[in-house]
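Reminder to self: tokens first, then the designed residues, so the page reads top to bottom the way the pipeline ran.
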């Protein structure tokens, strides 16, 4: 675990330093649903980028516990960011939507679309009962990729909405561990949350499909932040 965590920090720090030392790079944080408000992070931008990448990488990894669950939710998130990256890199659309314009960010739409296509192909064989599995190699890298894309298009907080299932899965682990260490009591029967549902008697396929539905709704909510400002 320490080796994986160190690797994530090194990768995140590399991206953070690369962006920070680009003179024209915007180091402000855009807040969804709020018009004409940005927060200048200054030097804190470096640890902020590392936190986003490391947390997203691990959140996807924690979600990868049931057949098709992580990749299905990632397809929804990547699909939403396909649209977000395209409009962010389009001068006319970004101005109309009042979102930060990032030159050539539209090229990332190709990467996001590739994630959707590759994810759909993988899901064909990863759906219950799964014949192939992504493991840490897939979940950690895909999560880190999604986090990096959100950073490149200045929509880090939108990622919290679009990737809400990943956020909740990671948060359930944090809450469980914190509660057990401080109070000696568990909040859930087990964490991450999808394991809790499974221990409550929910069939695996039911858990997966319902969390897909939640991920789809959250993707739509995330896209709505582009206009509702």
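Designed residues (229 positions):
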């Amino acid at each position: 675990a320490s080796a994986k965590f160190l690797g994530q920090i090194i990768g995140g720090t590399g991206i953070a330093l690369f962006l920070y030392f680009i003179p024209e790079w915007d180091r402000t944080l855009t807040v969804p649903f709020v018009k004409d408000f940005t927060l200048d992070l200054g030097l804190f931008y470096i640890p902020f980028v590392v936190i986003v990448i490391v947390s997203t990488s691990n959140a996807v990894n924690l979600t990868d516990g049931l057949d098709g669950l992580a990749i299905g939710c990632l397809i929804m998130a990547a699909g939403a960011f396909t649209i977000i990256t395209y409009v962010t890199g389009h001068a006319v659309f970004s101005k109309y939507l009042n979102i930060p314009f990032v030159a050539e960010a539209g090229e990332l739409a190709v990467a996001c679309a590739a994630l959707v296509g590759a994810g759909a192909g993988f899901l064909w064989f990863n759906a219950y009962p799964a014949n192939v599995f992504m493991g840490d190699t897939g979940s950690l890298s895909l999560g880190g990729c999604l986090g990096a894309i959100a950073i490149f298009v200045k929509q880090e907080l939108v990622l919290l909405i679009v990737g809400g299932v990943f956020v909740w899965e990671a948060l359930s682990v944090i809450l469980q561990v914190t509660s057990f260490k401080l109070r000696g009591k568990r909040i859930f029967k087990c964490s991450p949350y999808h394991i809790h549902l499974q221990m409550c008697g929910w069939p695996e396929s039911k858990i997966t499909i319902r969390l897909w539905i939640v991920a789809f709704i959250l993707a739509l909510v995330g896209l709505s932040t582009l206009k509702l400002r």
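The mean pLDDT is 93.
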